[in-house]
Amino acid sequence: MRRIFGSVRSRATLGATLVVAVALVAAGAAVLLSLRSNLMEQAGNEAQRTAQNVVAQLAAGKPYDRLDLDDESPVQVVDADGTLVAASDELERISGTATDAVKPQPQSGGTGTGAGTGDDDDDADDDSGRGEAGEIGEGTEFSDGSATIDGESADYRFAAVPVEAGDRGRLTVYAGGSLDAEQSAVNTALTVMLIGFPLLLGVVAGVTWLVTRRALRPVEGIRGEMAAITASEDLARRVPVPGTHDEVARLALTTNETLAALQTSVERQRRFVADASHELRSPIASLRTQLEVGVAHPELLDLDGAVEDTVRLQGLAADLLLLARLDAGERPGDARFDLGALAREQAEGRAEVTVEARSAQVAGSRGQVGRVLTNLLDNARRHARSAVTLTVRREGEWVVAAVADDGDGVAEADRERIFERFVRLDEARSRDDGGAGLGLAIARDVAVRHGGTLTVGRAPAGGALFELRLPQAQ
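Given the sequence above, the corresponding structure tokens read:
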């Protein structure tokens, strides 16, 4: 059960069905209430019309026994004391009105005890039983109840209409409108809803299931391909991209972009490991050879060469460790320091370097930025003929540290390649004269992680011009 409702398709189907079910119940309740209200209003209007017909007769002074009452609807005439003075002939039981009496009480003055139409002989009698003309009152009140007429019981909506009947005082006419139509219509509508709503919910659930199944089919294809890539460790494979232009297609494209970036990163890591192993092999082998010779022939031990190889090995290990920290996302920090003062400090002791550095505050790692300047100065010293210039200036919101030399410069086609790891343009140069090809790569990585840039161009003297741009500290 947990596995079934753990799928997106099942949850989507269940959610859609519940939403439609709530909407149907709310709509059905509103329809039933509206239908019942309308039919109750119709029954009340019918009862009010019947009552007003009787009220008009009473207002005209017509005697109780000559009132024209509807034998198919319950009608009562009640005086101010609550006494029933007239009622429908076939009325057997009533509730919901001012009195449950169904037989009128005898009245003095010859008004009679019955209802309906009298005999023709009565028409010849004098009008001693006729009351004085009255006025129809205002303010109809409604109530619900039931009545039995000629053996048939039913529910009714009663209208109570008052009337001032002259010398007979204030009377109230109660007339009922049948609620059979209301009950029948409500029951029919409720039956239709009880049968139709489950069928409609079943259709909604089935359609939602099929639609989500079709919509999620590409996702399953992506998942299956990702599982195969994970099992085979073949990052060159890509997930299928559906022909639609929806979120699933964008997911597939993003997944392929992620796989491409991961493949590039893995290949870069493999090249890095291979190049690092190659670079480490040379000084280690040289140092081992010198030590083995020194063990066999102490007089031939080249201590200066051993120390130089050790220093190179130590510097290469430091570069590799720094690159590893940078690749791991090490944050440079937000300490403020003077880039001009740092430039003068890094150029100290270098006779061939001319420094023109203004004070400028930047934020980040002072040690890493100092390493950038050191790498740039070392690179310039190796390629310069006679002079190297280090300047620090402000340009708007940026602080620019520029290192220029008077060497041969860097060809435009190689100005981006020199920032790749283990790249050396002068391949004929011996390893003892040059580095491992990590200095400029480290310098650019540090610049980027400080929110800046490192570019190379042509210096005024014809050599290379490296410009380090860092945001000025606020």
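The chain has eight helices and 14 strands. Try to locate this feature in the token string yourself.
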